[in-house]
Design a protein that fits this description.
Elements: H1 2-13, H2 18-56, H3 65-92
């Protein structure tokens, strides 16, 4: 987190507006979350399909779309909350690193 705080301080030092900084962090978090969802879903589907094939003889697994959507929303919300908390500290903190 220290490295990230330094990056955010650098952006503030070169004149990035607080709103721009927040918007950049939010978009970065959403992009990383979307990539994680896609990669994680692919890996889980492949593993569960293989498990279904081994257990039942057919490549199939049960899933619940509402549960999946809820899990994705919880992951996105927690990622955004953490990113916004870090951004808030960086926006309000000093521009010089703590020594």
């Amino acid at each position: 987190m220290t490295e990230r705080a330094e990056e955010l301080r650098l952006l503030r030092t070169v004149g990035t507006a607080p709103r721009q900084l927040t918007r950049a962090v939010v978009w970065e978090t959403l992009i990383v979350t979307a990539a994680g969802v896609l990669i994680g879903t692919g890996i889980a589907a492949a593993c569960l399909t293989a498990l279904g094939q081994a257990a039942t003889g057919r490549p199939w697994f049960a899933y619940s779309l509402p549960q999946y959507a809820g899990l994705v929303l919880v992951c996105a919300a927690s990622g955004l909350a953490g990113a916004l908390a870090a951004t808030r500290r960086a926006r309000r903190g000093s521009l010089l690193p703590d020594r």
